[in-house]
Each structure stands twice: as structure tokens, then as C-alpha cells.
Amino acid sequence: MVxxxxxTWLPILLLLLLQSCRGVKxxxxxxxxxxxxxxxGPVADxxxxxxxxxxxxxSGIHFRLRARSFIVAEPQGNRVLFxxxxxxxxxxxxxIKVLERxxxxxxxxxxxxxxxxxxxxxxxxxxxxxxxxxxxITSLGxxxxxxxxxxxxxxxxxxxxxxxxxSGSIFVNKxxxxxxxxxxxxxxxxxxxxxxxxxxxxDVDKDMTLLKFSDDxxxxxxxxxxxxxxxxxxxxxxxxxxxxxKGAAARFMEDWFDQNSSGNVSSEVSRGNKIPRRVSDIIPVxxxxxxxxxxxxxxxxxxxxxxxxxxxxxxxRVRSALRQADRPRFVSAFCQTNCGDVxxxxxxxxxxxxxxxxxxxxxxxxxxxxxxxxRGPGYPDEFESTRIIGERQFKKxxxxxNAASEQLNGKIDFRHTYVDFSKHNVxxxxxxxxxxxxxTCPAAMGFAFAAGTTDGPGAFDFTxxxxxxxxxxxxxxxxxxxxxxxxxxxxxxxxxxxxxxEMKKPYDWAPSILPLQIxxxxxxxxxxxxxxxxxxxxxxxxxxxxxxxTKGNSxxxxxxxxxxxxxxxxxxxxYVTTFEEYQIQRYxxxxxxxxxxxxxxxxxxxxxxxSGLVKGxxxxxxxxxxxxxxxxxxxxxxxxxxxxxxxxxFGDLSxxxxxxxxxxxxxNVTVVFWSACPRNDLMTExxxxxxxxxxxxxxWVPAYDDDDFCLRFIWSRPAKLSARSxxxxxxxxxxxxxxGVYRIRHFGAAKSLLGSIKHFRGxxxxxxxx
Length: 770
Known about the structure:
Layout: H1 2-26, E1 30-38, E2 44-49, E3 57-61, E4 66-73, E5 79-85, H2 92-106, E6 115-119, E7 125-126, H3 144-163, E8 166-176, E9 182-183, H4 186-189, H5 194-197, E10 207-215, E11 219-226, H6 244-260, H7 294-298, E12 303-307, H8 310-315, E13 331-335, E14 342-343, E15 348-351, E16 372-375, H9 382-403, E17 406-407, E18 412-420, E19 425-429, E20 435-439, E21 445-446, E22 452-453, E23 456-457, H10 471-480, H11 485-491, E24 496-498, E25 513-521, E26 524-528, E27 532-533, H12 535-550, E28 562-566, E29 575-576, H13 579-584, H14 587-590, H15 598-615, E30 653-655, E31 662-663, E32 668-675, E33 689-695, E34 699-705, E35 711-716, E36 725-732, E37 740-751, E38 757-763, E39 767-769
Parallel strand pairs: 5-6, 11-13, 26-28, 27-29, 31-39
Antiparallel strand pairs: 1-4, 1-8, 2-3, 2-7, 3-35, 4-5, 8-10, 8-17, 9-14, 10-11, 12-38, 15-16, 18-25, 19-20, 21-24, 22-23, 25-26, 30-32, 32-36, 33-34, 33-37, 35-36, 37-38, 37-39
Helix pairs in contact: 2-3, 6-9, 12-15
């Protein structure tokens, strides 16, 4: 009887066990949605944001910029929205206007409390989109095209993410990446207490934290990761719009996934119409397809410029939404964290005149900071350095992505507040016990701010580590605004070069009210900070928040909590160093706007947010930041008219490939078209440049466009005020390009004297890649 019962119940138990296992695998407590949209903006005439170099004017595209979003929601509860933008930093006015649009579209579903917009810190994007004066001086004021490209693109990426919301799971993984960042201000780092430094193996954070998003039906649909390294692989003299190393890593990973997941991309071009495998040049492919194609290429000569529509540029784009499959497109974002003192120029800083290492304390060469430059791993080729640092992040992300197994579980929650950092009371502990009450200060920049960094040195006689200043520049400063005694004492030992927090004409020069935010997804906590934290400042903030979250073996978190800092988020307020680093007054300390106790203020307020998160209490919303959009001044001249020589049409070739040309992988193919100013049409979600491969006898298939690392679109005028212009398209043939017949095309838009816009296209002669 007992044996019979065991036999009878055994299949039932096995069935229940099987159902239970299936439940563990497929049951999801979250809804997840991801989206991505073009935010490239104007690629000509506009000053680039980051280096504050007035001579760095955009003149083309290295590869396009994107906004990438994820939403995680409880089916009947809270949700959080995180947007990673290929821009130097977030902007208060951009965030305000995005939130207004979300309010109009979704009501109270997405607000300042649960929405974070974070910049990757590329120094190769168009400027002019921040609302405070000091950040738009070099861009000749506010640039409406830059601003609208960001607001529109962020909104569209969020709409995609919202529409893609489906049941899914999130996995987290963490690992060390050792060769993608070095400390560019080690003398300041060494001023931190030795006992504190001894707790860490490196003087920069080497950990990458990655989220893997998995749809219940489709499987993996995206990944977001946080890793600290500056977006300064591209130098202060570069003029091509670029996402720098993090934007490159995102492009590499999205292409890697697309080409290794569904199998819907052929690895070769057959004699028929199969789509070629177009890849970023770091992804290995074996090609066996080769023909003698010169005779076929000779039958396709260059075409003169022709009228077209904007739709053609979008439709021919390699990653066009018009050709997407039914499943959501894979979205990969490489987010920024506490990168304040972390440089991607990992070979170190050297003097360009002698080749010797720069002075350790001041980063000078013979007393001059202008001669001291950091070297990337591809030195002297900044494009190669960008590729290498991007590739290193990409490869680590793939490793973490493939091995991710810890699933996020638990509440979705958030806390947000605004804090006026210009006069905030802070209670700090004193050595030996007790506390002391101090204050933050109105924003101010020190003399060493003007010295720049080894990633992009400044000019004149400014040096890092200057805690004295000099009489001449004080005189110049006083013509703008002489700081008062209280401000000088508050900011000590920073010698004030620009008293930006007290400069209000024609409107605010610097922010004072800053957003602080915590987003929670299960055991993951994201600290949204509006600036660039140094390595040790970030460590102190994370540790302080973790102490609150795990205090008393909190049932909410326990000891298993992952904390990441999302830097440059929701607005921008420059740097945050430790108190000890501030004393040294290198660039980062001189750019810590609110004085030596800035970090203590952050820690104090984030501990309050964390406490509210644990206890389920609300927090004060704080004072609202200003909306200065209607006060903005724009001095960038508009495009007046485009022209070509008599007898030449827009899209005609000025330089074609040689007849009967054969190129090999690694060669540079260059063609030049008569063109028009790219500001006439930003070609959002389209392309200015396109490489096509011949499939069959007469079908041209898109292979590479201006969102590919290997294709460069370079725009130029023969003279500054000339109405004529050229578009130079350079294709560095990747090692993975398939053999075949190719041609290069250009899309553009010309403005007439009456203001009308006409789109055009042109094509090079065909050539062979063998």
C-alpha cells in the first residue's frame, strides 16, 4: 500500500516541481521597457561642449549621439525611468522641458521624483543647451537646435520605452576593468587620509556594474552599465561630433548583439539580394566570398546631384526603424559615474615639447600647463584611443552580460529633493567626538579652473594647484564681480577667479538649487548626482548611503545592496571633491563650486533620502530651480544661403574615387561632394553619409552610415563667410568588410536665399573591395 502511494504521488510531485521550476524561471515581478533615439543635433558651426575651447567648432560626424532609456515598473505600483544621453552632461532646462512634455502625455506617471536624465560626459557634442551663462559663453549663447534635439530625442526614447513595457526580469553583475582609466590628479588623491586610502587597491574605481534586461518572451533586450572614466579620448582640437569612448562602446555592443542573436543578418553577400553583414570593426568575422568585380563596378559611374526627400536619408540608414523586426531593438548604454578625477588617457601625461612626464603636482612643463597632455592608448591617434577605450568597456560589458545571474527582486521606489547649495547648513563630525556646524558657499571657480586638466589644458599662465592667484587676473576678475569678504573666507583656500554664484546679469551665471535623487530597483540603488564626483568623494557617498540602508540588518536591504552613482544627472554643477582634495586646489578642487564642505552637504542630504527610502517616509521637495528659457540670449548667426559654382549642382562630386579602383581592408576611401550647411536639416534618425554594397546585379544595400565608427562625415567651407561648402566622406574599410562592389553616397539639404529648404543626394563611382 505504501509503495503504491509512492508510485501514485511520484508523478504528481514531479509535475508540481516542474511547474515550480518554470515559475522561478519565467515569473516576473517587473515590467521593463527600453528605447533609443537620435539626439545628434547640429554638426556644423556650433561650439562643442566640454573643453570650453572657443576654437573647437563642430564640422561633421564621427558617429551619432543617442538617448537611451529604460523603465522598470511594478505592474500595479511604482516605476522609475532612467535616460542615458550621449551628451556632456544633463541640463536643468532640458530636464524641466522633458518633464513638462511627459506631464502632458502621461499625467503624473513620470515626474521629477522618478525620472533621471544622465550624461555620459563626451566632450565632442554640440554645446549651447544649458541655461546658466558660464556654460554657454563659448557657444555664443544658447543654441536652440542643440536644445530641441535633446528634448525631442529624450522624449522619443521615453515614448519607445513606455510603449515597449512588457513582463521581464533584470539581472545585475559586477566586475573589474583595470585598463580604461587612471587618476589625472594623483597629488590631490594622496592628500586623503592614508588610513582611508589603504582600504582601496587603486586610486580610481575599477568596478563596472551592469544591468541585463530580459523580456519574458524575447529574452535579452538591453543592458545599462556604470563605469568611471572621462569622455576625453577625443581631444580639445577634434571637430567631429562623437560619443567618445562610452558612445563607441554602446555602438559596439548593440551591433554585437544584433549580429549574434537572431541570425537575421547574413555574413556574406550572395549573388542574390541578401543583406551584407555590416559590423563595427572590432567584431571578428570570417569571410570567404571573393570575385573579380572590376568589370561590374565599371558599369556604375558617379551620378550628378539629384533632388530627393528627407525620407530617403532615413529609409537608407543602416539601422533604420523602417527595417526593424517585430521584436524590440536591443539597447545598450554605457553610463557615467564618479569620473571626476579619472582620465581615459591611460599612458600618462607628458610634455609635448620634451616628451618627458609632466610635473607631478602642477601638471606643467617648464612652468607652462599648455604643454602637458595626457596620452591615450592609441597615441597619437585620438580616434584609435577612443576605439580602444570603448572596446575595453564593451568587452567587459559583454563578459558581465553573459555571466549575469543575480536577479533583482524587491520594491521599486524613489526619493527626490532640491537643495540650495549656495547657503546650506551642514553638520560635520569632529575628530575626537562632537560636531561642528558649517555652511556651503555661493558658487565660485578658482584660478586652477582656468588651467584645465591633462585631458585638455587651458591657456595663459594658470596652473593646477594654485591656491594664491595673481594680481593681474584678480584685476580682470574684479571688472566682472569682486567677491566679498564672506565669500572669500567661505571658499578658502580657493582663490576666486569667477564669483559665478553672485553674478546675475544678464541672468544667473551658475546654478544654486540642485536636484538630489535616489532610485531603487530591488537591491540596486542609483544615486543621481548633478556633477562630477572624484573617486574618493564617490566612495564616501556610497559608503554613507550603504550604512543607512543596511543599518541594523534592515529587512529592506540586508547586506546585499548594489549602489551606483549616476554622475552628471538632471542638471550640472561641475565637480565635487573631498575636503582634503579641495585643499590642494587642482582643477577638480577649483571647480568644486560650493566650497570645501560641498561633499559633506551631499552626504548629509543623501542620508536623509536613504532614511526616507528605508522607513517609507516622504522627504521635503525643497525650492524649485529657475526656468530661464525665456531669458536666453543666442548670438550664433543663422544659415543665410547655400550656393555652388555655376554649372555645379548640390550633390555633385568634387573628388571621386579613381576609375577601376580596388581597395583592401584598412584602406581609406575618400570622396568629396559639393554640399550645403548641415544645420539646414539635422537628418535626425537619418544619415549624411552612406556606404552601399551591390547585391545582385543592380540592387544597392546599405552597409555603413554616419553612425558607424569606420565612416566619417566632414563638412567644410572654403572660407568662413562663404556660401559654398564641401562634404568629405572618409571610409576606413574595416577588417570585417565583405568583398564586393561598393559606392559612397551623400544626403544633404540646401537653403535658398528665400529661405526654402531643398534636399539633395549624390553618389560616387563604384569601386571594389577585395
